[in-house]
Amino acid sequence: MTMGQRIRDLRKAAGLSQEELGLQVGVKKAAIHKYESGLVVNLKQATIEKLAAALHTTPAYLLGLDTPSLPEGALPYHPTQRIPILGRISAGMPIYAEQNIEGYTVTDLNGGAEYFALRVSGDSMNAIGINDGYLIIVRRQESVENGEVAVVLVGDENATVKRFYATDSTVTLMPQSTNPIHQPQIYDLHRTRIQVLGKVVKVEFLL
């Protein structure tokens, strides 16, 4: 599901017209139409935050990194999968090595996939709601699509969380931060080994 589809579905669930949502966000009806139809995809962080507030959700959900709250009256789905919380992942060490595991949590994600949680350190992804100390839930997989948020091992370094973009010969790891110190990291695949560990599928704010 795209961000535009999420905006549309939440707007309709709230009983808002495009014009009414635009008034709350401070944009014209035509802008909401463009957001929902995918004609505009690179929204400013401030706009995403206003949309999230008006639609009673989070910026992370609009960006595809979180799941929405249950509707009123809905029955909760009880988490069934216990997954490890990794404090940090180092190159050359098995991902589930005892030294990496700082505890366990549960998730309601299923579908036969393998998941782990990772404790975030730093503010390189805070513009999309992935803040220092938060947990991210990661689906274990060896590749991701361009533009997806991934956990990646770079050479002999520790794992990092960034938006992932690849060509035949390079990988660019893109921060999403309000701190200008964080800049895109571009790697030549002939010189640096890049290993995708998984795709970020959820952000846990309260753990």
UniProtKB/TrEMBL annotation:
Keywords: Autocatalytic cleavage, DNA damage, DNA repair, Hydrolase, SOS response. The keyword Phosphoprotein does not apply. CDD domains: HTH_XRE (cd00093), S24_LexA-like (cd06529). InterPro entries: Cro/C1-type_HTH (IPR001387), Lambda_DNA-bd_dom_sf (IPR010982), LexA-like (IPR039418), LexA/Signal_pep-like_sf (IPR036286), LexA_repressor (IPR050077), Peptidase_S24_LexA (IPR006197), Peptidase_S24_S26A/B/C (IPR015927). Gene3D superfamilies: lambda repressor-like DNA-binding domains, Umud Fragment, subunit A. Pfam families: HTH_3, Peptidase_S24. Residues 7-62 form the HTH cro/C1-type domain. The keyword Calcium does not apply. SMART domains: HTH_XRE (SM00530). Belongs to the peptidase S24 family. This is Helix-turn-helix domain-containing protein.
